[in-house]
Write a structure and sequence with these properties.
With 418 residues, the protein is an alpha/beta fold. The protein has helices at residues 3-19, 29-34, 39-47, 55-75, 79-98, 106-125, 173-180, 196-200, 209-223, 239-250, 268-273, 277-286, 291-297, 328-337, 358-373, 410-417, and strands spanning 130-137, 140-147, 156-162, 186-191, 227-237, 257-260, 315-320, 342-347, 383-388, 394-396. 45% of the residues lie in helices and 16% in strands.
Length: 418
């Protein structure tokens, strides 16, 4: 645990008691709905929470209730109703296991077993179109879920769905079906080093192994008859926007990248100024217990810098104007360094979760990736920028907030000169 977290637990508990989940992730409820959470489940969970210590119990309690209802409908032969409920239960069991920061804790393992059971039942009820994937990776294993369109599929475009640091592969079940397989695309929702079952199996994240894991997933997709190996893209949110950027710069088999909420700044914001849970989580993911060593050996080397200049595929970035994990000036400076065909959208008054526009960005990101994989959006020199206003208007040609009055912050000016 970080020094700040050890001394500020009381502050987070008060914030949770008074402000609920919004105290941790402002406006995130809309995003969680795109990740398969029903809003009624969400409200029931946070009616039970008055401190951080109560989170595992609350998530597990409501997850158990929904799983029980799913089993009831499955016994009655109402397969689609049961399948929908199993999705809801799986993502909540996932939240429960995430809330326990000890890979060997038997409660964490029990929550994971319930999540796996729900996914297994979902796969059976969906006719085998949701399949568990386990791949060898550098003396360990990485885990994913393969989502297939209905019917006979050959040579389809595919997308890797990358989770944020506090997410797991199950979080994309709903989005995979709604936005990808329904349009004939193959989707692979992944866990990389440090996440979910990969972390439970002893695989921690370092500076570069996440992008190698993405490469391993590309290897796997390329072997499937359902997939066109030349049309594999990635949709990532939060830290997967960062890992996806690294992968796109180092593995040019990735043919498109849509990255929302990407952490592309100096990492002082996310690890020193944001709430300490983010740093706690990443230390757990990377296997560090000493904060100074973590800062010196990993954090200092994490900023993307000029690496993004090596990205060759079309790339889309979207970020909230007041993202609390990456300052907008730094996100725009990162964008300036990208030389590939690119697009940037800044959403007025949105925070990191982009909850107010979540349904829009999940659909738009999927459609954008599909078009990019079909050969569009790749013209040399493409540079499309939008500032998306809260009132529905969009300013085209620039992603800069209007209140900047056409001034350019120093970070952006420096990146343009590089």
């Amino acid at each position: 645990m970080t020094t700040r977290a050890a001394g500020q637990t009381w502050a987070l508990d008060i914030a949770l008691a008074q402000g609920g989940f919004d105290a941790l992730h402002p406006g995130a409820k809309g995003t969680l709905e795109q990740l398969g959470h029903d809003h009624t489940d969400f409200d029931k969970v946070f009616e039970l929470v008055r401190s951080g210590a109560m989170l595992p119990k609350a998530w597990a309690t409501v997850a158990g209730q929904v799983e029980e209802r799913a089993a009831h409908h499955e016994r009655g032969g109402f397969s689609q109703t049961a399948a929908d409920l199993y999705v809801r239960a799986a993502v909540m069991w996932g939240r429960a296991q995430y809330s326990v920061f000890d890979a060997a804790d038997p409660r964490k393992l029990a929550f994971r077993e319930h999540a796996n059971h729900c996914v297994e039942r979902l796969g059976a009820l969906r006719g085998g179109r949701v399949r568990r994937v386990v791949l060898d990776f550098e003396d360990r294993h990485i885990y994913a879920l393969l989502h297939l369109p209905p019917g006979e599929v050959r040579g389809a475009p595919a997308v890797i769905l990358g989770p944020g640091m506090d997410m797991i592969k199950e979080d994309y079940i709903y989005a995979a079906e709604r936005y990808y397989t329904s349009r004939g695309m193959v989707a692979l929702s992944i866990e990389g080093p440090g996440q979910g079952e990969s972390r439970a199996g002893g695989l921690t994240v370092d500076l570069t192994n996440y992008e190698r894991a993405i490469g391993r997933y590309i290897d796997h997709l390329a072997t499937l008859p359902e997939v066109d190996a030349d049309r594999i893209g990635m949709f990532g949110i939060s830290m997967s926007g960062y890992w996806g950027s690294r992968a796109a710069a180092t593995d040019h088999r990735l043919a498109a990248l849509a990255a929302f909420e990407a952490v592309t700044g100096d990492f002082a914001t996310i690890f020193e100024r944001a709430q300490p849970t983010f740093k706690n989580n990443y230390m757990f993911m990377s296997g560090y217990s000493d904060e100074e060593t973590f800062d010196r050996e990993l954090v200092a080397r994490m900023p993307l810098g000029d690496l993004v200049a090596d990205i060759a595929c079309p790339v889309l970035y979207g970020i909230g104007e007041f993202d609390e994990l990456t300052q907008l000036e730094q996100a725009l400076a990162n964008y300036e360094r990208v030389r590939a065909p690119k697009e940037m959208r800044v959403y007025e008054n949105e925070f990191h979760p982009l909850g107010g526009v979540a349904a829009e960005i999940f659909r738009f990101g999927a459609e954008w990736v599909e078009r990019a994989l079909n050969g569009e959006l790749a013209e040399p020199g493409r540079d499309v920028r939008h500032y998306v206003h809260r009132d529905g208007r969009t300013t085209d040609g620039t992603a800069d907030p209007t209140w900047w009055l056409s001034t350019v912050p120093a970070q952006i000016t420096k990146a343009r000169r590089a």
